[in-house]
Amino acid sequence: MSTPIVLIATAKPRPEDIDAFTAWQGHYVAAAATFPGFLSSDLVPPTELGHVEWTLLLTFETAAQLNQWEQSSERAALIAAGACEPVIQSIERFQRPPGLGMRVL
Fold this sequence. Notes:
Layout: E1 5-11, H1 18-32, E2 38-44, E3 54-60, H2 63-70, H3 73-82, E4 88-95, E5 103-104
Antiparallel strand pairs: 1-3, 1-4, 2-3, 4-5
Helix pairs in contact: 1-3
């Protein structure tokens, strides 16, 4: 059995764009959820006053299934149409072994 893989992306939307960003994120996750291997998603808002960084986590069953999503035309269209790409500051991929912490791939 393979270990789930987690894509972690951070975004820094301007305060006036938070509603648009969260709406876009909802469309992004809805599209990802239609792909094989999708397990879950979480959107973590800033945790401290004055911070603007949001964190999006997508979990897939395998790295290959996550790669399929990342290379998809559906994802590319959402990134292009959402005008959110400039607010995405970083994207990292982690694999979460059972019973252990995360490790960077």
